[in-house]
Structures are given as C-alpha cells and as structure tokens.
Amino acid sequence: MIGNIVAARPSWHPALGAGPVQSLVTAAPGIAASTAAAANLLTAPLNVILPGVGIVLGAIIGSLFAAHAARVAGAKQENQVLNSLIPTVQQAVSTVFQHLNDGTASASAATSALDQIQQQYWQAVAQIEHNAGQAGGPGNCSTRYGDSKGDIGAPCNKDCTASCCIGCGWVENWVDQGKKIIASGSGSRSWPAIPGNSYGLQSFPGLAISYTAPAPGTAAAATAALTSGEASGLLSGSVLGIPVWMIIAGLVAWKVL
Fold it and tell me: 209: phi > 0 → left, psi -120 to 50 → alpha, else beta; which?
C-alpha cells in the first residue's frame, strides 16, 4: 500500500501552465458545410456530451474522459489509471479556461464544466477503489490540510494514497479556485508539479489558469452573450437535415478521439 503514496505536496510556487488546447469551434463551419463530412459525423460518439455544459464544451470534455476510459479499460493499478487521468483532467481544465477567455463558453457553462471535471475524476478512480495499494477518496479532502490561500488538501499516507492525495491536493483546488476566479470576473492561479513515485506514477507539470472577463463591446463579449443562451435558435436548426447540435458535437468528439 505504501507504494502508491504520493509525496506530500511541496510549498505552492509558480509552475508551468498546461499548453493551450486548440479551439475546435472555428473548425466546425467549414467541415459541417461538406455533405460527406456532415454525414460522417452521425457515426461519432455523441453519447459523451456532459450534461449541464454547453454543447461544444461539453462534447470536448466528455470526449477527453471517454478517451481516457478507453485507454485504461480493465486497469487494476492505481498508478496506471492516474498516468492517463491526470493529463486528461489538466487538459480539460485548460480547455474550460481557453473557451471562457475567448468567449466561446459562458461563465455559467464554464463553472458547470469544472464541476463535471471534478465529478469525472472521482468516478474515474472509483474503478480501482478497494484494490490492493489504494485507499481514500473525496471524503478525505479538507481545508485543514490546505494552505493559507484556502486550498484543499489531504494527508498523503496509507489511508489516502495517490488517487486520493492528488484528487484532494490538486484536482479539488483546480476546480474550487477556478470557480472562485470565474465568480470574481478575473484572476489567476498556479499550482506546482505533481511528483511521481518509484512505483509507476509519472510526474506531471504544474497547472496555471487565468481569466479576464471579455470587455463589453468586444467580439469575445458578443460571443459569450451568444453562448449564454441566445444560441438556442441556432442550435435547433439543421444542415442537410442533420441537427446543428449533432454536427458540432460529433465533430468535436471525432476530432478529440
């Protein structure tokens, strides 16, 4: 059981942020315009769209986690799951803030997306719960073990091994602090790298997030307003008889997977 324990979190320090995730929204119109491409989208895995999140953002994040699940199907080792799951979560969080900053996701959709990412993380590690070498879960998370910034943490030991320690010390904070930044309208945070161990867990770079609400009158602000509810009429339309929402979701899922 000791083998899966992650080293205690180092003191917080600025860290390299995750690289930007290329926006897929701009690719949608050109591809959807093609009859053949639109028809092919019907075979895309549309069931990965996350509920409560915008169509495009929900499809991207849902596809990321679907790809992770396919990679670790049947995995029994905690570190094997985490080596795929951690970069998936980091990319998902970065995707949320990319779309938030460029106006293609509203603040409410981004907040819902972060909640979904948090939920997806704990669901993903649930497959290894009770296996040898794994212990702990979200119930171990507490601000008592965080830092002066109000972060969440957990004691990293035999009762809270890698999936628990990383979930509490990193993932919970990416989500919790990210939501606070969104609610405030602007802000940024950086977290340190995730250390590996000698039992198979890789090390992962730190994550940085930032948000600045689009200034009124800018293209990003107009797009954000559209994504916050005014796009319902557009998404209810169709291209060549195929619903627009299905084209967008299928395109995104196909592209990510």
Answer: beta
pLDDT tens string 163-204? 999 999 999 999 999 999 999 999 999 999 999 988 899 999
Both tokens of 29, joined, read: 């119109």
* Number of structural domains in the chain: 1
Domain with 101, as residue range(s), is 2-256
- 205, HSE (Cβ side, Cα atoms, 13 Å): 11
DSSP lists the bridge partners of residue 153 as 142
Task: Report the interhelical angle of 55-71 vs 244-256 (nearest 10°).
Answer: 40
Measure the CA–CA gap between 110 and 127, rounded to whole angstroms.
27
The pTM assigned to this predicted structure is 0.72
Q: Is 107 helix (H, G, I), strand (E, B) or coil?
A: helix
Gyration radius of the chain over CA positions? 19
pLDDT exceeds cutoff 70 at 22: no
**Contact (CB, 8 A) for 89 and 174:** yes
Tokens of 40: 């092919």
- Helix, strand and coil in the chain, % to nearest 5: 55, 10, 35
Query: 51-61 pLDDT, tens per residue?
Result: 556 778 888 89
Q: How far apart are CA 93 and CA 91, in angstroms?
A: 6
Report residue 175 as tokens.
Answer: 């989500």
Residue 216 CB partners (closer than 8 Å, separation 6+): none
